[in-house]
């Protein structure tokens, strides 16, 4: 049993890259219902209506889709300093950065697979302009009432050449805990779900069957209800957004889900995991076998083959993007 360290409070922000910046912006604002709250150069800042911080998504124009960085909010200034020391000890630190709008000093580092992660503490709470003021003072912003109306950025699922090595890093260096995992018949751990607080998962690592490093499987936004996921499927259908699989219910973590591709090519999950929390301080990791996985998702929907092939950036681009990282092997395309 691993106890939670509680030095990381939650996922704060993700920077997503898109070769279709205008169409991706349309997807996130008009389809998902995020609010644009600023821009800088090739980047646009977006927020869900329940973000207490300035923004949770930066959308940046780039030649390929993918993920540039994932930011985690520390639980305190002292917690930030402790985790920075731990990351430096692990030899994966990149250094301090100026924070994004609304955020203070931010320490950047890599996980073993090369995904950039960042930790920060200082955060300026969002103050809605008059036209976005909520009726209730315990909500940061008025409910947008259009599109899917997602509540929050929920989790990030990375692809990694060695999922277990990265899960171990997040567990041992950042103080997370593995709530669920998949073990192949060979004994290899091929996927791990990790959490920092009571949500049952925040970061996920899945083996990249191509052998490449640094890729994204999906980012997920949570909705208020399961019905919102069904409604999201209709909204995506009507607007020509590619639906990859779902709606259905995952066996692992029991999340109600819909997977779509935003116009830039990144896989986006709309999920409803809101009723499931991990309260047990002595939680015992759930391990799923190959035979159990072969049964499909909770109600029998088989895992779609593209789940094992589609990631961003696409494989050729992934190989060139990691070429300049020391000690990194782009791997063979499957
Ligand atoms: Fe997910």
From TrEMBL:
- Annotated InterPro entries: Catechol_2-3_dOase, Glyas_Bleomycin-R_OHBP_Dase, Glyas_Fos-R_dOase_dom, GlyoxalaseI/FosfomycinResist, VOC_core
Keyword Translocase set for record: no
Q: Per the record, a Pfam family?
A: Glyoxalase
Compositional bias segments (type: Basic and acidic residues):
325-334
> Which SUPFAM superfamilies does this one have?
Glyoxalase/Bleomycin resistance protein/Dihydroxybiphenyl dioxygenase (SSF54593)
> What are the entry keywords?
Dioxygenase, Oxidoreductase, Repeat
Q: Which EC main class describes this enzyme?
A: oxidoreductase
Q: Where is this region: Disordered?
A: 310-334
* Domain VOC: from-to ranges: 10-122, 152-273
Q: Which GO terms describe its molecular function?
A: catechol 2,3-dioxygenase activity; ferrous iron binding
Superkingdom of origin organism: Bacteria
According to the UniProt entry, what is the EC number of this protein?
Answer: 1.13.11.2
Family annotation (PANTHER family): GLYOXALASE FAMILY PROTEIN, METAPYROCATECHASE
What is the protein's name according to its record?
Answer: Catechol 2,3-dioxygenase
Q: Which organism is it from?
A: Nonomuraea zeae
